[in-house]
Structures
1.
Amino acid sequence: MSRFLFALACGALSATAWSMPVYSQTAPQPSAAPAAPARPAFATTKVEGTDNVYIFRYGGHLSMFIVTPKGVIATDPIGLARPQAVTTYIAEIKKVTDQPVKYVIYSHHHFDHIAGGKPFKDLGAKFIAHKRAKERLLELKRDEVVIPDQTVDKKRTITLGGTTLELIHVGRNHSDNTLVMRLPKEKIIFAVDFIPVQALQWRNMPDSWPDEWEESIKKVLALEWDRMIPGHPGPGDRLGTKDDARAVLTYMQELSAEVKKAVAEGKCYETAMKEIKMPKYASWANYEQWLAGNIERYCHHLRVGI
Ligand SMILES: [Zn+2]
């Protein structure tokens, strides 16, 4: 097994890998400076300009929920190895409404986003995911993940209490089963892990389809929306914009072009991983930690074709 495939398998199968927080919550402080106030473990925020769209953050993960007069639509339970995240999520919803949670919709099958949903199931929520997510979850057989009751292929529209939510599969990217959730009236999307806001792609982009990924971002850009709720907080907790999505697409195009040159010069993997720098993106989160891994992924993709 090649080094890349080994890393990929570990990434796909190890629960601890997926449970690692993606963003460091506590930056080291110079000793002379006053300590920054600790970031609370969780927060619930109503999205500005809406009266019913909320973001629930627990640690470094985000989930969107929508409150309607006929019930609540929740999304990723974000409860891997931390059941308190899910009970807190439900308690936070109950602070806003007495309405029952009718749906829980999975963004994609990675455990750090979707594990821990049983308390929602016990309340009677129906679970929805892309059909490939259900297939993968049935193969992986993990007790802490609720298997979806219903699946989506290319698109499904949910209407509840006057709110319309589209579930759209824009192709394979960071996983082969990502659903983009779009609120057409509010012009908001919830897009997890494949369009990070001013941040590099995760580690060596395991479990991914780099070329189709670029196409999927183009499809997202073609949808009508103004604001994007990401799966992990962006800088200053701001939401993403189409400019952010375009920047991610450009980063991937520029990095793959650099790696293509490195492949032609026989520099993949090690030399390319050391030599290629992308200074335009040095201010993005995780640039130092994950650039080499991103290069490794493109070396593999361009040499082996997967
Ligand atoms: Zn993921």
2.
Amino acid sequence: MASSAELAGRTAVVTGASGGIGGAVSRALATAGASVWMVARHGARLEASARQAGGRAVVADVADPAGAEAVRAAVGRPVDILVNAVGSFDLAPVAETSPEMFSRMLDGNLVAPFLAIRALLPAMLEAGRGHVVTIGSVAGRRAFPANGAYSAAKFGVRGLHAVLDEELRGTGVRATLVEPAATDTALWDPLDPDNRPDLPPRSAMLAPERVAETVLYIVTRPPDVRIPAVAVERS
Ligand SMILES: NC(=O)c1ccc[n+]([C@@H]2O[C@H](COP(=O)([O-])OP(=O)(O)OC[C@H]3O[C@@H](n4cnc5c(N)ncnc54)[C@H](OP(=O)(O)O)[C@@H]3O)[C@@H](O)[C@H]2O)c1
């Protein structure tokens, strides 16, 4: 476990911070002493999550370049830790996936982390330190029926991360991809998994706090340790 001051003086940005994993990550980073800037599109839910974590809310759509730039401007100083926990989820067989849904999955899961990295990475490189943690998914490594659009985005996230990881060697900036299995958050609410035999029940899912503990472990490693990727599953 990180001590309560291990991240004192560090600035963190968490996108998707009103949600299950991003909210839990924000609380974990703030508890470890970081100043946490929490990003999501809908103000009321974000404000509640920010109050709970003791973080600062920034209402922005990071799937839009202007939104990602607004986050950079709001923070106003180099960021030590960026956690891309932004994302959205929908299911349909490929033959029934609408172009709108496909674009929505790419925007929310792949374009959004790309734009946040693009906005915040130059200052990290200039400072010669920083850590980019991106939440991918088990669906970025494995094929599940009806996950075509989501999986295309999450496989894309894995590709983006792998290239970034190579580019960052020797810069002092590190990148880690965290790929959780099913996690009990509001992301599942529209799908009602407890009443669908094709989906895992909530009781078999990870708690978002378990993913957050993993992220905290990653960002508190000494500078000479690289953790390129971590899979998190329920035992
Ligand atoms: N839950 C799982 O089973 C699971 C498993 C593996 C991986 N993941 C991944 O983990 C990440 C977090 O998922 P979660 O389960 O915590 O989902 P969640 O509870 O639905 O939270 C998603 C968060 O992203 C925000 N968001 C969505 N689009 C955004 C945008 N364009 N700009 C800014 N914020 C945006 C949402 O707030 P607003 O709607 O207010 O913007 C919310 O705060 C996602 O990348 C997801 O794919 C989840």
